[in-house]
Specification:
3 helices, 125 residues, mainly alpha
Length: 125
């Protein structure tokens, strides 16, 4: 009976250590997820801003093409800015895709699944 009590205390100690580790992992993952969400939000805000700028550039480009003789130099500047915005847009979409893949990896991870189990056991899920 004494051995059973010692075994039970040892098991309890191991479980408490596991729970503490999982809580640390959860806190770390939660922080990483929040940082990723912030980066995605910033990227989406930049994309939105760039899309608006891109639409403005397209409108300006159409007006510049109508009066090429007077605005030839301006047209070249707008084309360059448009190309740059397209490059930046492509890079931002690639970053959003990379961040989404990272989030998918986190959510599919064993640690995240253990976190969900612990949360369910605590009645928080």
């Amino acid at each position: 009976m004494h051995n059973d009590a010692v075994d039970a205390r040892g098991l309890q100690n191991h479980l408490e250590i596991d729970v503490a580790r999982l809580q640390r992992d959860k806190a770390t993952l939660t922080g990483e997820i929040q940082a990723l969400h912030n980066r995605v939000h910033e990227a989406l805000m930049r994309i939105s801003h760039l899309e608006g700028a891109n639409a403005e550039l397209r409108n300006s480009l159409a007006a510049a093409e109508a009066d090429r003789h007077e605005k030839g130099v301006r047209l070249k500047d707008l084309q360059s800015a448009h190309a740059e915005s397209q490059t930046i847009n492509a890079a931002l979409f690639a970053e959003v895709g990379r961040l989404q893949e990272l989030l998918d990896t986190i959510f599919k991870s064993r640690t995240w699944k253990l976190h969900e189990i612990v949360e369910r056991m605590k009645g928080r899920a």
